[in-house]
Amino acid sequence: MRCHLSLRCVRVVLRTVRPMCRHVPLMPVTCATACCLWVALLGPKWLWWGAWAIIVLNGGGWLWRRSVLGCLATLCCVIAMLHGHHARQAVLADALLNQPLRVEGKVLSLHDRGGLRSALFGVEQCHPLAVAGGCMRLDRLQLSLPSTVTVAEGERWQLAVRLRPPHGLANPRQWDTVWRVRRQGIGGIGSVLPHPAPQRLSEAGWQPAAWLRRQIETSGVSASAQRWLKGMIVGDGSAFDDADWQLFNDTGTTHLVVVSGSHITLAVGFWAALARWGMRRVRPTRYRRATAPRAGAALAGIGYAVLAQGGAPAARACVALLPWVLAFVSLWRPSRWQLWWLALLAVLLIMPWSLLMPGVWLSFGAVAGLYVMHPHRQTAPSLWRLLYCHGAITLLMEGALLVMMERWAPLAFPANLIAIPWISLVLMPLGMSGALCAWPCPSVAHGCWWLFDRLLAPLCSLLNSAAQYCPSRLVDPEAATAIGTAIMVVAVVSMLPCCTWRWRGILLLGSALLALGRTSAPRPDEGMFEVTVLDVGQGQLVELRTHRHRYLFDTGPQSRSGRRAIDEVWPAAQAFDGVIVSHGDLDHSGGIPALRQYHHVGRWWAPWAMPALTAGDALQGRPPALSLCRAGQSWVVDGVRFRFLWPRPDQPLSSSENDRSCVLLVEGQVGRALFTGDASAQVEQWLLSAFDQPISVWVAGHHGSHSSNSRALLVRTRPAAMLYSTGYANRYHHPAYQTVERVREVGAQQWNTAETGAITVRFLPEGNVSIDTQRRHQTVVIRRL
């Protein structure tokens, strides 16, 4: 029986995969190109040279045999290696870190967040001002603009800048944010210097996107409709505020509101229908065979993406459209799978960073799923066909996102079931019709956008109700992997055209049992606890987990633009049993508003009654439960003891905000962790008497400043590990070299979130300390105490 089942599964898979490989010589070429691109972007140097050797040897052999397919594969691999190597090297050199540079180039786009402006700058020339070296390999920069400089998109400028290489935040259940920057071709991030003074080299020409944005703003529609029109038609994703993005994430509709592949496809369909209608009036007997309308519609979709200044998804869709345009205007009539492989090959060759974009594989996987379901789409009724395809593709995408992001939007399926046809068939045509009529007939455009506004209101109301009823939530890693895999199996099985319902039921039952057997996520045992120092830049956010409870020490930083690091770590609706705010500096207390507004906190501790904690909550009308941390206070949960060591209750609070910091000691059965906030060495002298045995972990005081982490307390506590929470290339130069030397003298191992990403500490039953780092993906077990 088991052998028969295995053979049946293999037969079903082969019958499904065979159409993808039949008469598709591009499949091995595309796979070889993807492997070479991965080596060029991420592989070590020795593997890069090895790949070149293999390419040269195989290329000579294919050329000797006069194999067209082999020569094509060799050519694609050479292009991938060169293009990938250039993309990898297009980053600021370490020798030019924080050095003044003179750059000339064009302002590609502008962004405004909380009054702080930034620009995406295309580099044409670059020269260092103070040191020797070159920076001509830089292609794009992300620059913060001073208030004294007024720039516009399309202008050419000469600027003096100070840069640092792109560096993101790496936290559990999150993609390293550095890839978001590198995918845009940005090789440096920095600010504009006042001297030498910025110089405008040339004015901007006519900007269609800026002109259309002004037309939307003067049309008289509501603010919500303006944001949607700017996002869907002009491609201005910065028009949406944080509440909008939270709504889209909770309902799984983010892909519908920014210019992406789906919008390009809708634009192509809109123009194809319009061109087909016109061709039918001109040539009523031969309009069905005309290729010009379809090719023109594809070119119009590319033009729409350029007009809307679409990002990577829109550019990827344009590249994928090129094979279809070639097929329409030539006598070549490829199969759908040939076009699929050719589109994937074109995307990889032209956009090398797309190899690391999850959206690339999700979009191509969705198209492949539609191709696999082709028999179903021929035999099923119209309404059933739409529902069946929508359900299968949505399940496939939800399962993939659950595995990759470990997040789940429960109402994404019904929300998309309503939002996709409403946006595709109603809102998008109205918005594009208004944009088309904005220049020749503004009154018609305003009428289309007025109707867009009226029809958008019920959709927004429905999405808000869905988000309030059941927002997105995090899923434990092992559970996310198991459940997401089971969901993808369900989706793939439902797509198989050659699998009977009986075998589908057997496969679905097996995947369900697999998911139920793997959904238990590891958590600390009774009497044990886990410490995670999250990567939040120049600030501090520490998560403490026991067997059944969850605490935070500090809340992360808030930037001048109002951006909070905690918003990038967790989605809304998280539950914390307690939050300890060490002191009032924004790099430690910046996340208080987000925690109060979007999450549930059982109790707060702080050294004094901060205004952010004592103000009445906008939803509840009363301040949260707040206790003042004082030395001697302690409590025990799940066999783990939490004890405050500072401030002293018999002394007034210090005038220094840093010296008011709550100092916390957490003690389990086999491990002890110390958190000193930003307390100085003077406070640490008072803490010496509180320690009679070594500690396991110390989260460095004041991010490793030389004014904290005194030698006396280090010798007294003898920590096995010292953890620093700092920002990459921060202006304070934390951790200070004096602190690093003092810690090295006591024999403690050191980790820095700026280098390793988030750091997770687990205390093993035998007394050892296990430390996992997010960016380096390594586990280190240090000495028994």
Task: List the main descriptive attributes of the protein structure presented here.
785 residues; 7-stranded mixed β-sheet; 9-stranded mixed β-sheet; 26 strands
Walk me through this protein's architecture.
This protein has 785 residues and is of the alpha/beta class. 46% of the residues lie in helices and 16% in strands. The strands form five sheets. The protein has a nine-stranded mixed β-sheet, with no helix packed on it. A seven-stranded mixed β-sheet has the order 17-18-19-20-21-22-23. It has a five-stranded mixed β-barrel with strand order 1-2-3-5-4. Strand 22, helix 25 and strand 23 form a beta-alpha-beta unit. Helix 8 (242-251) packs across helix 17 (442-469). The longest helix is centred in the middle third of the chain and has 28 residues, at 442-469.
Summarize the structure.
This protein is of the alpha/beta class and 785 residues long. Helix content is 46%, strand content 16%. β24 (759-763) and β25 (769-773) form a beta hairpin.
Question: What are the SSEs and their pairings?
Answer:
Elements: H1 2-21, H2 26-42, H3 45-65, H4 68-89, E1 100-113, E2 116-128, E3 140-145, E4 156-164, H5 178-182, E5 186-192, E6 199-202, H6 208-217, H7 223-234, H8 242-251, H9 261-282, H10 292-307, H11 312-329, H12 336-350, H13 358-372, H14 374-379, H15 382-405, E7 407-408, H16 412-437, H17 442-469, E8 473-474, H18 477-495, H19 501-517, E9 530-533, E10 542-545, E11 550-553, E12 575-576, E13 578-580, H20 586-589, H21 592-598, E14 600-601, E15 604-606, H22 611-614, E16 626-628, E17 634-637, E18 640-646, E19 663-667, E20 672-675, H23 681-687, E21 697-699, H24 711-717, E22 721-724, H25 737-745, E23 749-752, H26 753-756, E24 759-763, E25 769-773, E26 778-782
Parallel strand pairs: 3-5, 11-13, 12-14, 13-15, 15-16, 20-21, 21-22, 22-23
Antiparallel strand pairs: 1-2, 1-4, 2-3, 4-5, 4-6, 7-8, 9-10, 9-24, 10-11, 17-18, 18-19, 19-20, 24-25, 25-26
